[in-house]
């Protein structure tokens, strides 16, 4: 029996040219696969960060500039209106559509009517 076991081990040893035992070879193969996946994740993270920065600089930045210019233009238009125009009331009625609760709408309309009454008393 010892002779057969010895001959099997010698055949096994000859079949493995690296001289590394099979469990260690399997572990190194798994480690290589893990390292490859880890490197792939790093590259994909870098790609996602780069694409996000490109999106921000090429799409959002010009849009934010256009929004700022439009806001400035609207503010200039509102400043040209006479004082008798109830701008707050118009805005409150406009915001009624986009408001989330009836209480917010009611309070906005009450504030606008109070301001309108104050402005009309001031100019009377």
The level of helicity is over 70%
User: End-to-end span in angstroms?
Assistant: 120 Å
Instruction: Give the helix tally.
Output: 4
Global outline: elongated
CA-atom Rg in angstroms: 38 Å
Query: What integer is the average pLDDT?
Result: 75
Instruction: Report low-confidence residues grouped into runs of 5 or more.
Output: 5-9
Give the topology string: H per helix, E per strand. Answer: HHHH
What does this structure look like?
The protein is mainly α and 124 residues long. It folds into two domains: 27-80; 84-124. The protein has four helices and no strands. The chain has helices at 2-15, 22-79, 87-98, 102-123. It is elongated, with a radius of gyration of 38 Å. The N and C termini lie far apart (120 Å). The model is unreliable at 5-9 (pLDDT under 50).
